[in-house]
Amino acid sequence: MANHALLREVTLTLPMVADMEITASKTATAMAEHMGLGADQTDEVRMAVVEACINSFEHSHAEDSRVYLTFAITGDEQHEKLEITVRDNGRGFKTSEVEEPKIEEKLKAERKRGWGLKIIRGLMDEVDIESDAEGTTITMVKYRRAGRGK
Amino acid sequence: MTETLKVTLKKRGGLSVIYTEGYINNQGGEEIAKVAYRVLDGGEKKLLLNLEGTKIVNSIGISILIEIIERILEIEGKLGFCCLTKTIAKTFHIMGLAQYADIYDDEASGVAGMTG
Q1: pLDDT, tens digit (0-9, with 9 covering 90-100), for B52-103
Q2: Residue B22 confidence class, pLDDT cut points 50, 70, 90
Q3: Which residues of A touch B62 (CB under 8 A)?
Q4: Does residue A25 contact residue A49 with C-beta atoms inside 8 Å?
Q5: Smallest Cβ distance to B56: which of A47, A102, A112?
Q6: CATH number belonging to domain B6-115
Q7: What is the pLDDT of residues A66-94, one digit of tens each?
Q8: Which of B66, B62, B54, B104 minimizes the C-alpha distance to B82?
């Protein structure tokens, strides 16, 4: 169980205001750097957090207009991971009904958006999405690869 | 609080190159599109986007870049990107943009690749 010890945790509550995702990305960067993620991995975490926040801003329609984030570093010196949850109290969506965007279709389509979840899944090591009428929680994990700062 | 994107246009070896500095979100994407469409409306069919000054993008901003790609494909032109961070390049690959736009490591190879 020692591998799963909580080493550090930061929580953040953000209003759904334009560009507030940048604030979240700065916290993500600080946490990623703290645990010794390399620059590229840190960048990936940062962009995934931006996308998760935008997803909430755009689609949740949460009455409290807030996004709740938790950044947790767990594990031990050898096996650290950064787990980030982005939660809203919005109306949720059926994950099974989210279509996988395809560039060849988007190029011809009127609506070219809808890439957030695909980007998050592509950038993070593990992604879990839970959504119902009470809200949505996206949980994302990035593992530190062997060798700090690589 | 709104992050603003600085967009500039220069000619390099006869090719129009758009430089960005800052966050490419929806407003940033619109700024790039304005400059890109001005170039295309002037009759040019090739365009290179140098993103060296951009360290973060979001999917809404990239969606506007897809609109630019669509417009360029319609006129049988060519769009290239250069000087991307590894994460932005990876994101473009995840989305499949690399199938429809060329990605170059640096500006010199971008200009050579698009004008050669």
Answers
A1: 999 999 999 999 999 999 999 999 999 999 999 999 999 999 999 999 999 9
A2: very high
A3: 115
A4: yes
A5: A47
A6: 3.30.750.24
A7: 999 999 999 876 778 999 999 999 999 99
A8: B104
Question: Which chain A residues are closer than 8 Å to B22 by Cβ?
Answer: none
In CATH, the architecture of A6-143 is: 2-Layer Sandwich (3.30)
Task: Give DSSP secondary structure letters for A92-124.
Answer: ---GGGPPPP-HHHHTTSS-----HHHHHHHHS
Q: What share of chain A is helix, strand, coil (3-state, %, to 5)?
A: 35, 30, 35
Task: Compute the distance between CA of residue B97 and CA of residue A36 in angstroms, rounded to an integer.
Answer: 31
CA-to-CA distance for A146 and A148, rounded, in angstroms? 6
* Contacting residues for A95 by C-beta, under 8 A, at least 6 apart: A129, A131
Distance (Å, rounded) from C-alpha A68 to C-alpha B24?
Answer: 24
Question: Can you tell me the distance from the alpha carbon of B5 to that of A84, in angstroms, rounded to the nearest whole number?
Answer: 28
pTM: 0.93
Could you give the angle at which helices A39-59 and B86-95 cross, rounded to 10 degrees?
50
Q: Which of A16, A19, A23, A45 to mutate to probe the B interface, most B CBs <10 Å?
A: A19
C-beta atoms of A106 and B99 within 8 A: no
d(CA A119, CA A41): 14
Q: Please report the sign of the dihedral spanned by the C-alpha atoms of residue B57, residue B61, residue B64, residue B66.
A: positive
**Where are chain B's structural domains?**
6-115
> In this complex, do B66 and A118 lie within 8 Å of one another by their Cβ atoms?
no
